[in-house]
Amino acid sequence: MNDTAPRARKTAPTSFKVEADATTAYWHKGAGDTLPPPDMTGPYMRNRPAPVQPVAGRKAWIVGSGIAGLAAAFYMIRDGGIKGEDITMLDALDIEGGSLDGAGDADEGYIIRGGREMNWNYDNFWDLFQDVPALELPAGYSVLDEYRLINDNDPNFSKSRLLHKQGQIRDFSTLGLRKSHQWELIRLLLKRKEDLDDATIEEYFSKSFFETNFWYLWRSMFAFENWQSLLEMKLYMHRFLDAIDGLADMSALVFPKYNQFDSFVVPLMRLLRDKGVRLQFNTRVHDLDMATDAGARTVTAMRASVDGKETVVALGPDDVVFALTGSMTEGTAYGDLDTAPVLRRGRHEPGEESDWTLWRNLARKSPIFGKPEKFYGNVDGSMWESVTLTCRPSPLVEKLKALSVNDPYSGRTVTGGVITFTDSNWVLSFTCNRQPHFPTQPEDVLVIWAYALLMDREGNHVKKPMPACTGREILAELCYHLGIVGQLDAVAANTKVRLALMPYITAQFMPRAAGDRPHVVPEGCTNLGLLGQFVETSNDIIFTMESSIRTARVAVYTLLGLRKQVADISPTQYDIRTLLKAARALNNSEPFPGERLLHRLLDKTYFAHVLPPLPEAAAARREHAESELAQFLGRGSKTFGRLTGWLDRFRDEVRMRRR
């Protein structure tokens, strides 16, 4: 390791479009376009790109060993032909996994800073994990196989998704949206992304929207705050449009068997180690030296602190660098039953010894690297706290049993996702996933995870903001909302509490504009790819493992010159079936305006099955449809008569042709 002089390099990567974008133009098949639609997924997209000529002596450096860094190593090996021993991962921590953590034991208490709600349209995630050997199944099976085996035989849903009034179930059978709220959501779906720069959620929606079931379900599932990015909420609406009819009871979700570290990091890291990938811990890369030549930018060295000693890592002429920008879990402060966490990051500046330093130093070199201060500069707007409870039998466990789908000790779905207290000042939620949550967890122990969104308010029972509370005080607040606060001593005697206060956990949701986040491969960069939650992609969302893996895949294919596209997000957002069932869900599970007319038009045709079933008997449907049409046109109008006659003739014509 030694310093290096700037040098000229080859030009920026090829102009082949690696990251597909379905929103750029109308796509149609022609002889001049040999590629499939830009958002097509499936086996046809499982092709391996044509091998590129190996570059002698090329090394790959990955800054950060979270899921994005692990994915970059995976795709370099599987699709890029890079040898594992030529890949080195550098991390400031002393363990791989980044934000995908999971640690502890039953005696000291387990800790997980977060959990993973998964979707079957995480196409890049499943592309990777269908090639990673399973954690517990025999050889030949993948993590995907293992995942499907669990979820196909243990459906996820919640019977207690929303609670209020100290443990009573609040009706969550519908999204609780008025017509005005429905139109607000529909208009948001129709808006252009370019028109939402720096717009916030609370600036757009009416005040009454924030008291609907929809908002409690949405914010607690995805961790949105009123003051955060309206653009990101729009992107989430498109990404999860196919799942919106399963939003209320969480039946649209699939969960891993264990915690995020054991379920994903352990098997993927085992594969990478077997391939020879090197990990170097206690290494914080804080700056990159660059040479510039006619608009091209080439990283020539990495400046890092290794075990506290400043070091310069020189890069070879053909080396590539993949670096994480920012961190959701950077600066986490910890507490326990008797100790409140103490935040060690500034409210507006994280300091030099943080995971934001590299991005900040890059941004000082050029505007192409974005504006990190837009994301780290408001801790009060991006902070929330999570709580891990290690529970032996107590009144808390008995209350959990009453709210769960299955017995918590059965190994099957327990709460089916987070349960949210809608009258909690903190917007407190908790969940119990399948148990055991850790492979070596004792049979009589349960792991419960809780978190809250609003950090500046006093609790309903404990008159303090959550960050000022000890674990016992937070446990008391939870017990209060469950209606068992009178049994707190018995609960605390059998519960270990570990706290994690994360100042930047929703920093990626902060309001942003075009240019605030760098592209995966910034303009002119010849050997640098940026990964994670703080880079720009065409249409994908953030705060998911899918988005981290997508950024890694785009970066690897681009820098290695692989002629293979990374498809845009699943085309289900354009599927007429998705649009119809989403319209029904937004209309509180009632037929939306015009739906009965569609039934009358398509009934007895091949396409009848795309329509959600109507609630009334078939005999009443004609009357309902005509009533609906009359609302649009007026019952006595000539147009009304012509249209009802046309509908009857169309149906008769279809039936005649069938005979």
What is this structure's SSE topology?
Elements lengths: L59 E4 L3 H12 L8 E4 L12 E3 L3 E3 L11 H7 L13 H10 L9 E3 L3 E2 L9 H12 L10 H4 L8 H10 L7 H10 L20 H15 L3 E3 L2 E11 L2 E11 L2 E6 L5 E5 L8 E4 L20 H9 L7 H4 L2 H4 L1 E8 L3 H9 L15 E3 L6 E4 L14 E7 L18 H12 L5 H5 L2 E8 L25 E4 L13 H15 L16 H11 L8 H8 L18 H13 L4 H21 L1
Parallel strand pairs: 1-2, 1-11, 2-7, 5-14, 11-18
Antiparallel strand pairs: 3-4, 5-6, 8-9, 9-10, 12-17, 13-16, 13-17, 14-15, 15-16
Helix pairs in contact: 1-8, 1-15, 2-15, 17-18
Short description:
The chain is an alpha/beta fold and 659 residues long. It has helices spanning 67-78, 123-129, 143-152, 179-190, 201-204, 213-222, 230-239, 260-274, 357-365, 373-376, 379-382, 395-403, 471-482, 488-492, 545-559, 576-586, 595-602, 621-633, 638-658, and strands at 60-63, 87-90, 103-105, 109-111, 162-164, 168-169, 278-280, 283-293, 296-306, 309-314, 320-324, 333-336, 384-391, 419-421, 428-431, 446-452, 495-502, 528-531.
Structure characterization notes:
This protein has 19 helices and 18 strands. The protein has helices at 67-78, 123-129, 143-152, 179-190, 201-204, 213-222, 230-239, 260-274, 357-365, 373-376, 379-382, 395-403, 471-482, 488-492, 545-559, 576-586, 595-602, 621-633, 638-658; strands at residues 60-63, 87-90, 103-105, 109-111, 162-164, 168-169, 278-280, 283-293, 296-306, 309-314, 320-324, 333-336, 384-391, 419-421, 428-431, 446-452, 495-502, 528-531. Strands 6-5-14-15-16-13-17-12 form an 8-stranded mixed sheet, with helices on both faces. A 5-stranded parallel sheet has the order 7-2-1-11-18, with helices on one face. A 3-stranded antiparallel sheet has the order 8-9-10. Helix 1 links the parallel strand 1 (60-63) and strand 2. Helix 1 runs parallel beside helix 8 and helix 17 (595-602) packs across helix 18. The radius of gyration is 27 Å and the shape is globular. The model is unreliable at 1-6 (pLDDT under 50).
